[in-house]
């Protein structure tokens, strides 16, 4: 990350904290001590110290990251699922409204659109939710 941050120029460099498909039990199986939240914050702190522009992290940790780093780090939230929807293999998910309420600057939505019976309608529903949160 240090080398990339040093050479990035005008490109925004984002660091992944912990994948949204990872749980506390997964960390224990990998021999990683401490809590998942502590690991996320340690990696966010490292990203900030190395001059990364932001982090990609679960919405579940987003509020804490925004409380610690404010606007210093862009916050990108993957693992977005419709409210009450199937999480699939993801373990730390939030819905669109939660992501923005917790402080996401951007969201990543993949499978809920790709796997929908009507992908266009699914994308439009997500956009409608966003427009309800951020009316023009």
What does this protein structure show overall?
This protein has 136 residues and is α/β, with parallel strands linked by helices. Helix content is 46%, strand content 9%. Strands 1-2-3-4 form a 4-stranded parallel beta sheet. The mean pLDDT is 92.
Q: What is the fold's blueprint, element by element?
A:
Layout: H1 2-7, E1 14-16, H2 24-29, H3 36-49, E2 54-56, H4 59-69, E3 74-77, H5 96-101, E4 106-107, H6 111-114, H7 119-133
Parallel strand pairs: 1-2, 2-3, 3-4
Helix pairs in contact: 3-4
Mean pLDDT: 92
Rg from C-alpha positions?
Answer: 16 Å
The total number of structural domains is 1
Series of H and E elements = HEHHEHEHEHH
Helix content: 40-55%
Fold-level CATH name: TIM Barrel
Kindly report the spatial arrangement of strands forming the biggest sheet.
Answer: 1-2-3-4
The global form is: globular
Percentage of residues in strands: 5-15%
CATH class: Alpha Beta
Counting helices, strands and paired strands, the structural category is alpha/beta
Main sheet overview:
4 strands, parallel
The CATH architecture name reads Alpha-Beta Barrel
Tell me the CATH superfamily.
Aldolase class I
Count of helix runs: 7
Low-confidence stretches: none
List its traits.
136 residues, alpha/beta, TIM Barrel, four-stranded parallel beta sheet, 7 helices
């Amino acid at each position: 990350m240090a080398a990339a941050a040093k050479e990035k120029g005008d490109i925004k460099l984002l660091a992944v904290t912990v994948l949204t498909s990872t749980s506390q039990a997964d960390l224990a199986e990998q021999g990683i001590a401490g809590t998942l939240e502590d690991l996320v914050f340690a990696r966010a702190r490292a990203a900030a110290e190395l001059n990364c522009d932001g982090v990609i992290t679960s919405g579940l940790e987003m509020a804490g990251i925004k409380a610690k780093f404010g606007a210093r780090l862009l916050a990108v939230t993957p693992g977005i699922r419709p409210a009450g929807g199937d999480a699939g293999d993801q373990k730390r998910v939030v819905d669109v409204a939660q992501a923005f309420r917790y402080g996401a600057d951007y969201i990543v939505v993949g499978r809920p659109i790709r796997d929908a019976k009507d992908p266009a309608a699914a994308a439009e529903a997500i956009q409608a939710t966003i427009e309800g949160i951020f009316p023009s």
